[in-house]
Amino acid sequence: MLGLKVLAMAVVLSLACSSVTAAVSYDGKSIVINGRRKILVSGSIHYPRSTPEMWPELIQKAKDGGLDVIQTYVFWNGHEPSPGNYNFEGRYDLVKFIKVVQRAGLYVHLRIGPYVCAEWNFGGFPVWLKYVPGMEFRTDNQPFKVAMQRFVEKIVSLMKSENLFEPQGGPIIMSQIENEYGPVEWEIGAPGKAYTAWAAKMAVGTDTGVPWIMCKQETAPDPIIDTCNGFYCEGFRPNKPDKPKMWTEAWTGWYTQFGGPPPRRPAEDLAFAVARFVQNNGSFFNYYMYHGGTNFDRSAGRFVATSYDYDAPIDEYGLLNEPKWGHLRDLHKAIKQCEPALVSSNPAVAWPGKNQEVHVFETKSGRCAAFLSNYDPNSSTKLTFRNVEYDLPPWSISILPDCKTAVYNTATVQSKSSSAKMVPVIDRLNWQSYGEETPSADDRDTLVMEGLWEQINVTRDSSDYLWYLTDVNVGSGEGFLKNGQLPTLTVMSAGHALHVFVNGKLSGTEYGSLDNPKLTFNGGVNLKPGINKISLLSVSVGLANVGTHYERWNTGVLGPVTLKGLDEGTRDLTKQRWSYKAGLKGESLNLDAPRRSTSVEWTEGSLLAQKQPLTWYKTTFNAPDGNDPLALDMISMGKGEVWINGQSIGRHWPGYIAKGSCGECNYAGTFNEKKCQTGCGQPSQRWYHVPRAWLKPSGNVLVVFEEWGGDPSKISVVKRTF
Ligand code: GAL
Question: Which of 44, 76, 115, 119 to mutate to test the pocket of ligand 1 (most atoms within 8 A of CB)?
Fold first, then answer.
């Protein structure tokens, strides 16, 4: 006989629904929908990270995988590109997305934020917001609160006008205000506390009729539910006993950064983490991401790769990532079989042996569900429960929906692995090229200013590119070799990448990384007597999306910029006159958008630019037959951006994975994103998703802007297939 010890759980178990008028409420056990407690299985799918044509199938696959809820953020900068001008079209058609979910019979958890983090450019905030006078993000700041409230109310009233909240007959059962504000509040203190109180009151005041949550924020004021985000959340407790234990982000993998490996999280460990959460009274869990998708356009956050695959159960292209998808589906089936016991009892917990744990949910009406755990990461164990012996593999949990039969074990994978491959379908494309000009300080359309200016302040993020242009006058003989040495140009930049041209010739390239975006160029430069043209092309790779007051972080060449080794010694160029040119010439000629572009002279055949920096490439191709998802193999190229029929499919950059960042991928034992990293020496991202919906049967225009120099003849269109 096991000595079962009932844990004193601070959970209110009375079916408190009698006092409830709203269709959706909660108690200490779970979210309550129309009077019924629910164990809810949820998954994140962010609507702009796929195309509307993909949504129905993605959501059907989520439903088939056993999901009840689709969770998404709302992306402010996509919806309000300039103040007061709203966009709810195409990939930003939020209402349509929610209605697709509704049609599939699933619920929605709407994370309005409007701060989202999400590896999304500027954390979801429009760049113009930063330039509203007096603005400070995410604190007790009047301009910020006014703008935030306006956007939140805009979204809530849009949802209400379409009857999308549950009490109106819609699918939205929950919303979220802010995102992981706890750590910021802790850091900034009093203004943070005041802001939290304000945000909570403002959100509740919108009167949606469904609960609000704040994730990773212990201080969430009532009636807002504080929730957990992480790789594991079993130990989490909400800040009041009458709030349910919810996990808003169960990380299915992790995002890829340029220069880093695509992280993997084994299905066994994810299933283990979820089962462990549920046996500890968790009643809502959301996979972040269930389908990660693609950071199209320039929507990715700083140094975040274009692929947002995330090792999610549905891969970037919308195909099942097996065995993860199937193993979780089986887990959800087992949990649902336990639901009647889970929602109406608290677990009795026992420790029958070393590294063994038993959780039993038993109701007066005779329902019983048990979870048997083995926490030993290396050895399997035999666990005796109610006189029956159960075999448990290392680091695993078995689920017994009737307290007798183990229908599922988190480490025993029944689903087969998928082996999706990238198969070339078009590998001979006829390319044309056009050389982007290197501007110089005396060009007409430049902005002249004293000293060095912050990049985003000048571009307002209308382009990744900003030219910093200046002249250096040297006396005769000065620029030549001195004691066998060329003068040294040093350029310090706040990031993120830099191409240095002297008299129109590329002298070198430097780039930072997610961990250290700053960079320094240091190189010998060949100067001639008289005027020399220094042209620095500073490139941003997405704006920061996380960190206290990340809106204050700088981008671009802020100096010092110096020239050493002249007769006079070191010349400081930092404070002299600089000319600025935002964006590329090709961008202003709309070379990326064939329908609007100005005609320029493209060259081809033997004149095609090969391995030349700053080159535009163009070709056309017909849509490959079939329905397999498509991608471009960009392995032969350097860094830049790619467009299909005028729509950006994102930045390309193989960003080779540094040696030494790879580790063993073993499912057993506590996981973190630094584990399971493979592919050292390989590109971070080789393939770039081309949505089928963006293609016409023939004559599709593919445009590539290449910064470093690549070989376009090796670009191929591939299909993803099993
Ligand atoms: C969380 C954040 C998410 C996402 C995630 C990492 O902390 O809430 O938006 O950034 O980290 O993918």
Answer: 119
